[in-house]
Amino acid sequence: MLAFAGPQRVMLYASLFALLAGGLVCALFQSPRAVGDLLLDLRSFEVPGVVDSVEVGMRKRRPRPPVYCARFHSEDGTLVGRSCEPGGSFQPGQRVVLESRGAQARIRGTTLTPMGRMGGLVLLFPLAGAVGLLHVVWTNHRESRAARVGIPILARVTYFGDGKPVRKKGPPPTELRWSFIARGERYEGRLSLDTASEFDFLPSRDVIVVLYDPAAPGINTVYVP
User: Fold this and answer.
1) For residue 143, which phi and psi values (nearest 5 degrees)?
2) Do the Cβ atoms of 142 and 219 come closer than 8 Å?
3) Quick one: 56 and 114 in the same domain?
4) Closest CA to 59 of 51, 50, 68
5) What are residue 180's phi and psi, to 5 degrees?
């Protein structure tokens, strides 16, 4: 496998952070509750219940009211749980309508997660991290295959300069683009590295040697002597 460099490395770190940090937050706080809310939204049965106690679930910046969470039980005693809403309109001993599905239950009009309907969005962070990680690893794998079994060919440099910025601060990466003809077809490739000096291994900025996968010439990479 080739070393991760330039924007590819930045995307790798960002994907790992989203996957690990998002997964940790989901595992510790939101995931079971957010999934429970989704299941109850899809299908639930209403049963009578009673509020046992009310507590602050999450404080927010003023003027937004804090989120209050009410603990409850069903009148037949088979269900117990905790659900939340901004502002808090429930009182201990109050009779309420519960939405239930299996062992999951909440007071009608509330959510299991203190973050409300937006709480489910936290599930997108590990998903986005996983997708980004798979994309980076797969791209690197294709380039590695081209480096291992690729056929060398001369390619014309079509661009050498600043690439698309990947950081808010600091200089943009340096991008090299090229094109070549194989089997009567024109193919292109590109490589981004952190600085222009990392391309000093190239003998020329006009014509370079690239390696392309014989099974798929669109998969190609720069030859490094």
Assistant:
1) -65, -35
2) yes
3) yes
4) 68
5) -155, 165
Question: For 155-172, what is each residue's pLDDT tens digit?
Answer: 999 999 888 876 777 788
Structural domain contains residue 132 = no
pTM: 0.47
Cβ atoms 220, 210 nearer than 8 A: yes
Radius of gyration (Cα) for the chain, nearest Å?
28
Phi, psi of 163 (to 5 degrees): -100, -170
> For residue 196, what are its two tokens?
């222009």
Dihedral, CA atoms, 155, 161, 164, 165, nearest 10 degrees? 140
Cβ-based neighbour number of residue 184 at 10 Å: 5
How far is residue 166's CA from residue 15's CA, in Å, rounded to a whole number?
13
- Return the CATH number at 15: 2.40.50
174-197 mean pLDDT: 89
Is residue 91 situated within a structural domain? yes
Give me the domain span that covers residue 96.
10-124
